[in-house]
Amino acid sequence: MKRYEDEVAGIYLRLMTADDTDRIVNWRNSDGVRKNFIYQALFTRESHENWIRTMIDTGKVVQLMICETATDKAVGSVYIRDIDTTHHKAEYGIFIGEDDARGKGYGTSAAKLMIKYCFEELELHRLFLRVYAENTQAIRSYEKAGFVKEAYLHDDVYVDGRYRDIVLMGIINK
After folding, report:
1. Strand 62-68 relative to strand 126-132: parallel, antiparallel, unpaired?
2. Whether 94 contacts 76, CB under 8 Å
3. Distance between CA atoms of 65 and 86, rounded to whole angstroms?
């Protein structure tokens, strides 16, 4: 994988390794991250190691770490899942795990870098994502990165005892 870096934002992407497991588990279990995921169950070291074995090692998922250029500190993660090599598409996801890294534009920059990686290196044609309709900050960030709203799904998921609306967004490699 070549280096994907945004010098203005001060971040770069690197492959996730097994050494990132504890960090990922802690981030994913934090309220600030977990509240935005459709899958709400708590993560464990074992479940993440299983994710690596069954999803990453098999090529169904690519997961990268978002790192600050100045310090090499990992602050979050981007990934694509359900990679469909027949139809050249995948589902995009992101989370900023470090509280002090939120609100700095890292999410938008990381999305742009991941889009470039997916279109250039993996030769995907389409990326899509699902986001809670009330998560307007994330929707704005995705739009800045080039994603467009494609559908509004009413009562699409049942989370925390209530139905929630989902916005489906996508981007095409033109």
Report:
1. unpaired
2. yes
3. 26
The single residue listed with the structure tokens 């203005």 is: 8
**pTM, rounded to two decimals:** 0.94
Kindly report the number of other CB atoms within 10 A of residue 16's CB atom.
Answer: 22
What is the C-alpha separation between 147 and 133, in angstroms, rounded?
15
Question: What tokens appear for 25 in the block?
Answer: 């588990």
Overall fold of domain 4-124:
Aminopeptidase (3.40.630)
| pLDDT tens, position by position, 44-76 | 999 999 999 999 999 999 999 999 999 999 999
Report the SS3 class of residue 37. coil
- pLDDT tens digits, 14-33: 999 999 999 999 999 999 89
